[in-house]
């Protein structure tokens, strides 16, 4: 589904990603863990094309998309749930969802998003800036689903959410996996990441320093304390 090979990414002269490689298979959830400032968002930005890799390649569904602009990656089936949600504040909940629809006859429709998030249906006519943090997160996920992606990129979807809502986001991610979606998930919530992931990678200073199954990381307290501050 997604293959990231030896990706180097810069902001101007600042070299942030130093040769990142990883893969996400069909129907898999792959999680990136790491402290703040380690390059997680930069990796997501490189994958979707906001900050293209200067070296290395990104292949998605058989195509080399390394230099594609974001809209083209989305058209090809990549969905993004950005860090900090970034819903359109002055649009209503329904409008936020409708602007994202691609009308490609895919399975995700307004009705199906409402089924997954009944709360969004209740609040369909409200402006997005009136929603709680948890509701905005649901809206950001719903909006990405409206593009009918095969691969979903999620950047810290539980950031700033209360424990109950963290569990709710975890439930939704598990449900999306059952629907067959592939997910590249950035998380700082270790228990949540370990619960949903098929594979985990730890990013430190722009490099993957550890990769394993969730149960191996769960048992590795040295890695947890050295790189995750647990
Ligand atoms: N737009 C930018 N311009 C310059 N440097 C940036 C920019 N965005 C992030 N950085 C730097 O890149 C590094 C990685 O940031 P980021 O990918 O946001 O980390 P994370 O998502 O893991 O917290 C940090 O040192 C950060 O200061
Ligand atoms: Mg980030």
Key attributes of the depicted protein:
four-stranded antiparallel β-sheet; six-stranded mixed β-sheet; 230 residues; binds magnesium ion; 2 domains; Rossmann fold; binds adenosine-5'-diphosphate
Q: Kindly give the count of domains.
A: 2
Give the low-confidence spans.
none
By helix and strand content, what is the structural category?
alpha/beta
CATH class designation of the largest domain: Alpha Beta
Query: Which hetero ligands occur in this complex?
Result: adenosine-5'-diphosphate, magnesium ion
Mean pLDDT: 95
- The number of distinct helices, counting runs of at least 4 residues, comes to 10
Alpha carbon gyration radius = 17 Å
Total beta strands: 10
Basic shape: globular
CATH homologous superfamily descriptor of the largest domain: P-loop containing nucleotide triphosphate hydrolases
Strand ordering within the main sheet? 6-7-8-3-9-10
Please tell me the CATH architecture of the largest domain by its name. Answer: 3-Layer(aba) Sandwich
Instruction: Determine the strand fraction and express it as a percent band.
Output: 25-35%
Oligomer: single chain
Helix content: 25-40%
What is the third-level CATH name, the topology of the largest domain?
Answer: Rossmann fold
**Largest pleated sheet:** 6 strands, mixed
